[in-house]
Amino acid sequence: MTEARGSAGQNGTAHARYAPGTPCWVSLMVHGLTATQDFYHELFGWEFQPGPHQLGTYMTALIDGREVAVIGQLPPDRHLPVAWTPYLASDDVDVTAETVRLCGGTIGVGPLDAADAGRLAIGSDPSGAVFGIWQAAARPGTDISGVPGTPAWNELLTYDTASITKFYETVFGYEEEAEVSADFDYVSLLVAGRPVAGIHGMGTALPRDRGPHWKTYFEVADADAALALVTGLGGHVVGPVRDSAHGRVATVTDPEGARFALIEGPR
């Protein structure tokens, strides 16, 4: 991780529109919807309201009444990996989905309408990492950032940046900024000169049971306290908390195994 969105004060930063390519939304599909709501309510203080209903059983997570994420119920017969999925903004999801296919990726869901909320597709890059595409209508995406409990950064963990960066640049029009380091393979993806996401090449250190995947970082006020809360609520700590140039960071899973990161920004 190189450039997480910084805190924007006590009230956070409101979002009315996301430029194409910018991570704008995160969703999670789970087997136990009620238990998962309880976990994230205790961890992040999320409140929940039903919907959107167009695509199945979903609950929208809120902070101070503003939309942060969506958690949905997997059908009983669907034994899919439980994972947070970031959605990248698009002005035309149909065109973006076709570009994904032309560049060697796949589209597994959509494009389809989510009533008046927007239009979406879910696909994967050539390495198999899953992501969503969101064309906003009534719902631009996550309403707020910069306060505890909100998404702070999204990062692709893959084998190496060289083999996959071109795909995302072509599909979403990113500029790239490589980390200058002999032993750290990292590229920041930029929109209008601003880092919005990252690609971390991990080589053989990439977990074999996971493969290439996107990871969402959520902001917390106290990383150590949040870690203790995760384990107390039935989640797991994947690695010890570490200090970075952007704050204290740790990777964890929820009780169903969905992996995500916690970040406490510098004080």
Give a topology summary.
Blueprint (H helix, E strand, L loop, with lengths): L12 E2 L8 E8 L2 H12 L2 E4 L7 E6 L2 E8 L10 E6 L3 H10 L3 E8 L4 E7 L5 E7 L7 E2 L5 E8 L6 H8 L2 E4 L6 E7 L2 E8 L11 E7 L3 H10 L3 E2 L4 E3 L2 E7 L5 E6 L3
Parallel strand pairs: 2-5, 6-9, 11-14, 15-19
Antiparallel strand pairs: 1-10, 2-6, 3-4, 4-5, 7-8, 8-9, 11-15, 12-13, 13-14, 16-18, 17-18, 18-19
Protein name: VOC family protein
InterPro entries: Anthracycline_SecMetBiosynth (IPR052164), Glyas_Bleomycin-R_OHBP_Dase (IPR029068), Glyoxalase_6 (IPR041581), VOC_core (IPR037523)
Pfam family, one: Glyoxalase_6
Could you please describe the fold and organization of this structure?
The chain has helices at residues 33-44, 93-102, 165-172, 223-232; strands at 13-14, 23-30, 47-50, 58-63, 66-73, 84-89, 106-113, 118-124, 130-136, 144-145, 151-158, 175-178, 185-191, 194-201, 213-219, 236-237, 242-244, 247-253, 259-264. The chain has 267 residues and is mainly beta. The chain has two domains: 13-144, 2,3-Dihydroxybiphenyl 1,2-Dioxygenase, domain 1; 146-264, 2,3-Dihydroxybiphenyl 1,2-Dioxygenase, domain 1 (Roll), CATH 3.10.180. The strands form three sheets. Strands 11, 12, 13, 14, 15, 16, 17, 18 and 19 form a nine-stranded mixed beta sheet that branches. A hairpin with a 2-residue loop joins strand 17 (242-244) and strand 18. Residues 22-136, 150-265 form the VOC domain. This is VOC family protein. Pfam families: Glyoxalase_6 (PF18029). InterPro entries: Anthracycline_SecMetBiosynth, Glyas_Bleomycin-R_OHBP_Dase, Glyoxalase_6, VOC_core.
